[in-house]
């Protein structure tokens, strides 16, 4: 799979708590965490969504409420200004 079509899989790691949940996890250099799950919040999302993304801030700033994003393009747009992820900019994402 090319990086272009697999940016989420290469920029995040799978976090698994046995018997509880699986999520895509991204830890930023600042210490912030980004968790991406399915809408139920307990499993990996389908490849093309929908996604629930949760930002857990390390610093004093307020954690954002979980965001329901309908597809990969919406997820990319939401993450682009918040993380250091390498995200394709092609509108066909």
From TrEMBL:
Superkingdom to which the source organism belongs: Bacteria
Protein name (record): Uncharacterized protein
Species of origin: Botrimarina mediterranea
């Amino acid at each position: 799979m090319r990086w272009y079509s697999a940016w989420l899989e290469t920029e995040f790691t799978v976090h698994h708590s046995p018997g509880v949940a699986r999520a895509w996890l991204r830890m930023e250099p600042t210490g912030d965490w980004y968790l991406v799950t399915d809408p139920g919040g307990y499993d990996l999302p389908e490849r093309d969504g929908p996604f629930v993304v949760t930002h857990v801030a390390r610093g004093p700033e307020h954690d954002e409420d979980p965001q329901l994003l309908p597809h990969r393009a919406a997820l990319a747009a939401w993450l682009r200004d918040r993380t250091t992820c390498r995200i394709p900019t092609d509108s066909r994402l």
